[in-house]
Every structure is written in structure tokens, then in C-alpha cells.
Amino acid sequence: VTFLRYKDDLGFCFYRFVGVFRLNRDKSMRENKCVWERVSDTYQLSIES
Fold first, then answer.
1. How far is CA 21 from CA 1, 9, 17, 42, 48, in A?
2. In this protein, which residues make up the domain named PvuRts1 I-like SET and RING associated (predicted)?
3. CB within 8 A of 1, min separation 6: which ones?
4. How high is the pLDDT of residue 48?
5. Tens-of-pLDDT digits for all 49 residues of the chain?
6. What residue segments make up the domains of the chain, in order of their start?
7. What is the reported pLDDT for 49?
8. pTM over 0.85
9. Residue 23: is it exposed, middle or buried by C-beta count within 10 angstroms (0-12/13-18/19+)?
């Protein structure tokens, strides 16, 4: 789960949901760097009591 953090002109911090990412190991090995792929742009939070 990934959030983008940014500050506005007044200095307030905001967080925006970007998505759920997974490391693509095969592509990372070929390119010799970490390659992340978004697997979902939503996240279902389940809360049980």
C-alpha cells in the first residue's frame, strides 16, 4: 500500500493513496534495479470485531 506525501504552499502535509504495488523480481534482475508494478488502485480494508 503506497501513499504520496506532499506539502502545499502553506506547509500543510497531505497524503494521497496511490495504489498497491508488487516488486517484479524478474524484471528487476534483468534491469539491475527495483521495478515495482501497480497491482491495484484500490484497497479493501476488512475490520473484524
1. 7, 29, 12, 11, 25
2. 1-45
3. 17, 20, 43
4. 86
5. 999 999 999 999 999 999 999 999 999 999 999 999 999 999 988 988 7
6. 2-40
7. 78
8. no
9. exposed
C-alpha cell at 28: 528487476
Q: Grid coordinates representing 43?
A: 484497497
C-alpha cell at 11: 506547509
In one letter, which amino acid is 2? T
C-alpha cell at 3: 501513499
Cell for 29? Answer: 534482475
Q: Give the pLDDT of residue 16.
A: 96
Q: 501497480: which residue's cell?
A: 38
